[in-house]
Amino acid sequence: MRRISVLKPVLVSNKERAGENRKFFDRMNSLVINIISSPGAGKTSFIERIVKNFKDKYRILVIEGDIKGQIDSDRLAKSKVDVIQINTLTECHLDAFMTAQALPKIKKKYDLILVENVGNLVCPAEFEIGEDFKLAILSTPEGDDKPLKYPLLFHLAKVIVINKSDLLPYVNFDFAKAKTGIKRENPKSIVYEVSAKTGSGFENFFKFLEKELGAKKKNKS
Amino acid sequence: MRRISVLKPVLVSNKERAGENRKFFDRMNSLVINIISSPGAGKTSFIERIVKNFKDKYRILVIEGDIKGQIDSDRLAKSKVDVIQINTLTECHLDAFMTAQALPKIKKKYDLILVENVGNLVCPAEFEIGEDFKLAILSTPEGDDKPLKYPLLFHLAKVIVINKSDLLPYVNFDFAKAKTGIKRENPKSIVYEVSAKTGSGFENFFKFLEKELGAKKKNKS
Predict the structure, then answer these.
(1) Residue-wise over A200-214: b if at least 16 C-beta within 10 A, else e?
(2) Residue A74 with chain B: CB contacts under 8 Å
(3) What burial class does residue B61 get, using C-beta atoms within 10 Å of its C-beta: 0-12 exposed, 13-18 middle, 19+ buried?
(4) How far is B137 from chain A (nearest CA, A)?
């Protein structure tokens, strides 16, 4: 309760800083995606799939947000993609100020910047970082009721990826029910069902991403 | 960064309020467990197993923390257990003040109070609510690296439950590696491996809980 009076000005000032970050990314002509999910929903595997598919055609950077350590950065290094690690330490999300600290480390132009936020379905949604859009990942073992229980992220995300479709035979997850919940929170959202483990279901998402990359380039040229 | 100067006094004042809550629970002779995990790790199913096993012998109350809605309360009502719902709205965790709001609704004595915190592996760990101990649930699809990536909860929890053992054949989860990570953060923690879905692995946990319930009664009589 008492934190709200403090949090509001913080969010306003975060929004301003996010605007500055966005200008920086726009000058570089970079499409920036803020990827948010629970811990272990498959953010890193999802990014690995994007890198594998697009790295020969587009210049890609991953900004890796973790409370502590660099387990995912080490993983992604194997994909031969550029990675900048941000450790948030006491904070449960990336905000625009932490993201700004990464900007001086960006030494060349990238077409695509994938930001892997801290694993948390709640707090990261509140903080813009200068992204073009948010992409939420929901994994099937988490359950089809999550869009109704954690509405803010599903309300704000342009794209919602349902991951771990390979586990569907072993978990109680009703895709139609999840999609109804998502559409209730966010009728305009685009929903994809994939397995980052097996690679299935990515064709349509890759088409979408290719189009977004093209649109971003066109806007700025 | 700028939030730290605010957060510290909030945490101090939360700790004081948690002490008051604890006195209230102690007067009732209630064992209070603060159950924390990612969204969809199986908190509600885990609670259902406890209720099923102990409800004829002990008086049980569930305090249900959710940002919005009462999906889990409705589920638990089917187990014929008393439930108090707290909606945290803008907050990503339960704190001692929100928990205090539930106290006037507690109209009889309970032996066991199970608090299902908001699904979030990060923030709830920071806020004492007056519990006897924290119990963390980690589910196998989340991955065995989570104790190192989200260390605070695993550092503070007395009991760590690895849930969804039924999915082990289908996910990359190394129980030994997870346990090594947990023990590095918290050598004294007690670790159980269960499937709340099938019910397997609960025998040892139930023995532990029975002992804790007995000790609590003994302390206060």
Answers:
(1) ebbeebeeebeebbe
(2) none
(3) buried
(4) 12
The H-or-E segment that residue B33 falls in is: strand B31-37
User: Interhelix angle for B43-54 vs B202-220, to 10°?
Assistant: 70
DSSP one-letter string for A171-191 = S---HHHHHHHHHHH-TT-EE
Q: Is B69 exposed, middle or buried (0-12, 13-18, 19+ CB in 10 A)?
A: middle
C-beta of residue A135 within 8 angstroms of C-beta of residue A112? no
The pTM is what? 0.93
What secondary structure letter does DSSP report for A123? G
Structure tokens at B73: 């309360």
- Measured CA to CA, the distance from residue B178 to residue B158 in angstroms comes to 16
The alpha carbon torsion through B73, B78, B82, B87 (nearest 10 deg) reads 0
Provide the residue-wise pLDDT of chain B in tens; the chain has 221 residues: 334 445 566 777 999 999 999 999 999 999 999 999 999 999 999 999 999 999 999 999 999 999 999 999 999 999 999 999 999 988 999 999 999 999 999 999 999 999 999 999 999 999 999 999 999 999 999 999 999 999 999 999 999 999 999 999 999 999 999 999 999 999 999 999 999 999 999 999 999 999 999 998 887 55
Report how far Cα A15 is from the mean position of its chain's Cα atoms. 18
- The token pair that represents B142 in the structure block: 């989340």
Task: Mention every residue, 6+ apart, whose C-beta is less than 8 A from residue A212.
Answer: A31, A132
Contact A40 B146 (CB under 8 A): yes
Q: What are the backbone dihedrals phi and psi of residue A139, each rounded to the nearest 5 degrees, phi first?
A: -100, 145
Q: Closest partner residue to B122 among A71, A92, A142, by Cβ? A: A92
Structure tokens at B84: 């108090």
Q: Which helix (H) or strand (E) holds A220?
A: helix A202-220
CA B21, chain centre distance (Å) = 16
Q: Is ipTM strictly over 0.85?
A: yes
- Cα–Cα distance list, A128 to A66, A169, B53, B159 (Å): 17, 36, 45, 35
Which residue among A122, A149, A152 places its CB closest to the CB of B69? A149
